[in-house]
Amino acid sequence: MYQLVYISRITSTGLSSPSTLNDISEGALERNRADDITGILCYGNGYFLQCVEGSEQALTNLKNRLLVDERHKELKILDFSEITERRFASWSLRSITLERWMNKDSELKKLMPFKPYAWEANEWQQFLDILQNYYEAQNKAGHTDTPPVEYSTLGVTLSKVVGQHQAFFLIQTVLGLMIAATLLWLML
Ligand SMILES: Cc1cc2nc3c(=O)[nH]c(=O)nc-3n(C[C@H](O)[C@H](O)[C@H](O)COP(=O)(O)O)c2cc1C
Predict the structure, then answer these.
(1) Domain count for the chain
(2) Best of 5, 17, 24, 30 for a ligand 1 pocket test (most atoms within 8 Å of beta carbon)
(3) Residue (of 187, 100, 87, 92) closest to 133 by Cα position
(4) Percent of the chain with pLDDT strictly greater than 70
(5) Structural domain contains residue 179
(6) Which residue has a Cα nearest atom 18 of ligand 1?
(7) Ligand 1 centroid vs 148 CA: distance in angstroms?
(8) Domain range spanning residue 73?
(9) Does residue 135 fall inside a structural domain?
(10) CATH number for the domain that contains residue 127
(11) Ligand 1 atom 13: the closest Cα is on which residue?
């Protein structure tokens, strides 16, 4: 069993689509399931940090595909080594954007804002340890392979924002109709 950890920067190609993160994770989920790869993909502040676990061959193949993927650049491998057990056994790929709890968590706060290229040698391990603990707790609560983005602050998830606005307009419409109905009832 091996683990591959790397960081990279999103490119303008990656940023050009509001659903890049969703697109990546949708394809990756299926592919990783088939290749017996598990892991997480973290996005924030224009950076990706990914930790994937699986056979040496499966990870080498994935690394080669990642190296030619134009949605990110400056891929820097932090670790490609043998491990005894998986950190993220329950997730074919857990995709996360910077979430609210990350700024509240006292340990994680030290690593924010998310600038992984500036981290000291072992800080990525601390980051993964914290994420592992957090998602293990989530897993116990029964959330596995949940939809990728839960809370986002960034443009990559613009589609989410559009979705929220749609909900807002729906509520406005319902309220408007209720007011109109009340006025009608008062007039009659
Ligand atoms: C940041 C990032 C993370 C990715 N993670 C995975 C992954 O975990 N598994 C995977 O199969 N593809 C992943 N991809 C997509 C691959 O780079 C590649 O596009 C995909 O595997 C399909 O490759 P193919 O078109 O050569 O078959 C990722 C891409 C990016 C930009």
Answers:
(1) 1
(2) 24
(3) 87
(4) 84
(5) no
(6) 65
(7) 15
(8) 2-156
(9) yes
(10) 3.30.70.100
(11) 28
- Find out whether the beta carbon of 149 lies less than 6 Å from any atom of ligand 1: no
CA atoms within 13 A on the CB side of 165: 5
- Please report the atom of ligand 1 found closest to the CA of residue 68: 17
Report the alpha-carbon distance of residue 47 to residue 8 in Å, rounded: 6
Residue-wise pLDDT for 19-60, tens only, equals 888 889 889 999 999 999 999 999 988 999 999 999 999 999
- Is 186 among the domain residues? no
Query: Could you tell me the pTM of the whole model?
Result: 0.77
187 in a domain, yes or no? Answer: no
User: Is residue 148 over pLDDT 50?
Assistant: no
Does ligand 1 lie within 6 Å of residue 40's CB atom? no
